[in-house]
Amino acid sequence: MNELPWIEIISAVVVLAGGGGVAGLLVARRRRHDQERGGGTTTLEREPGASAQATAEPAAGGTATAIRPEPDVAPEPAAPVVETPAPTAGRLVRLRDRLARSGSPLGARLLSVLSRDALTEDDWDEIEEELLLADVGAGPTTELLDALRTKVRVLGVREPGAVRELLRSELVTLLDPSLDRTLRTEPTTADDGTHLPAVTLVVGVNGTGKTTTVGKLARVLVADGRSVVLGAADTFRAAAADQLTTWGNRVGVPTVRSDREGADPASVAFEAVARGRDEKIDVVLVDTAGRLQNKAGLMDELGKIVRVSSKVVPPSEVLLVLDATTGQNGLSQARVFAEVAGVTGIVLTKLDGTAKGGIVVQVQRELGVPVKLIGLGEGPDDLAPFDVEEFVDGILG
């Protein structure tokens, strides 16, 4: 047996000392044989951090190359798309077809009765029934009937166009176009120069679409060029703050909220108004929890929200959201909210479905509070400033 050359013995000792064992000795022997045969070298060392699979196989007669793995790069998060709301000018005109299709008895059926050649007592009873079914209310219905009876008898109106104009005139009068329906969204300045945002509290019972209305109102204000902050003071419904935040993100409006469910709503409202003041925001919209008007504790809490937020800036608007499909029940809601929160305007939602619309007349008559906004659909821009003449024209078709 031939003895190993001294250099091979030294190489073997070094490999064994490094922990290679028999495998290391075989590697050293193979390397010597490759060199004697004139072959290339094999790169066994890997790049730092590379895996065994990342080492390339050597080409014939060539040198293998260690492949450096590609680092994992997290994709950049997509920036939220900020929408541009539709302009508010002319919204009610664009939505008038929906109003005409709502099936309101204030429309085509009244016109068909009034256009008959001779109006009997049964016809007038039919008109009265239609008005009452439309939730116009007993008092306003009597007034409208008396005015129509007198003018039909005196003027002898029968031609459909003249009848329509007569009914239109009386309905416009009943809805009182003299009421101030403007939204007070102008910020002011205190005597000491402090910026005071316009603060709008939105109140109402559960199920009227209150939080959605706040989101749509934010779009109305953004479309009119106002800067807005939302306050999620409905801390009792788990999804309310998330829902409001989503509405705000869509138009680039921040939302002040609490991360704790059941937090004090008044403190959230206070923080939102303070942020509006400090950041010189035009309008602060505060969404409150839906409350039943017969729950004294909840109504007291609403009064607390008004008091606490007033320590920063008193509310310039308190809007009561009413579901147009609730009929006369909406009137009792309006009375209690008016007493507690000092309601300045009504937002009437869901006028596009089975709503009858007469509640507009009754609410305004009882409270002296105008309807300022109406909702005519589920689209994000289906909230329109209320205009008496456009509303009546939509009803009459």
Describe this entry's structure for a reader.
The chain has 397 residues and is α/β, with parallel strands linked by helices. The protein has a domain of 38 residues. Helices cover 44% and strands 11% of the residues. It has 15 helices and 10 strands. The strands form 2 sheets. It has an 8-stranded mixed β-sheet with strand order 5-4-6-3-7-8-9-10, sandwiched between helices. Strands 1-2 form a two-stranded antiparallel sheet. Strand 7, helix 13 and strand 8 form a beta-alpha-beta unit. Helix 7 runs antiparallel to helix 8. The protein is elongated and about 70 Å long. About 10% of the residues have low confidence.
pLDDT < 50 stretches: 9-27, 39-60
Helix percent band: 40-55%
Strand content: 5-15%
Terminal Cα span:
115 Å
How is the main sheet built? 8 strands, mixed
Total strand count, please?
Answer: 10
Apparent shape: elongated
Strand order, sheet with most strands: 5-4-6-3-7-8-9-10
Question: How are the SSEs placed, and which strands pair?
Answer:
Layout: H1 6-17, H2 21-36, H3 91-94, H4 96-100, H5 108-114, H6 121-133, H7 138-155, H8 160-175, E1 188-189, E2 195-196, E3 198-203, H9 210-223, E4 228-233, H10 240-250, E5 255-256, H11 265-278, E6 283-288, H12 296-310, E7 317-323, H13 329-341, E8 345-349, H14 359-367, E9 371-375, E10 383-385, H15 388-396
Parallel strand pairs: 3-6, 3-7, 4-5, 4-6, 7-8, 8-9
Antiparallel strand pairs: 1-2, 9-10
